[in-house]
Amino acid sequence: MSRRIFKAIFLISVFICLVTMVVTAFVLFHFMEKRTQTELKEALELITPGVEEEGNDYLEDLEASHTDRRITWINADGRVLYDNQADAAHMDNHSSREEFQEAVSSGSGSSIRHSDTMMVETIYYAERLPDGTVLRMSSDQDSIWAIFMSLTEPAVVMFMFIVLLSLFLALRVSQSILKPLNELNLEHPENNDTYEELRPLLNKIRTQQDVIREQQRTEMERAEAFRREYTANISHELKTPLTSISGFAELMMDGSVPKSMVKEFSRTIYDEASRLITLVNDIIRLSQLDDRNVEYEWTTVDLYALARENIRVLQAAADRKNVRIYLQGEKSEIRGVHRVLTDVVYNLIDNAIKYNRENGTVEVSVMPESDGRAVCLKVKDTGIGIPEKDLDRIFERFYRVDKSHSKAVGGTGLGLSIVKHGAALHHAKIETSSAVGKGTTIAIHFPDNFINDCTDGN
Question: What are phi and psi of 67, to 5 degrees?
Answer without folding.
Answer: -70, 140
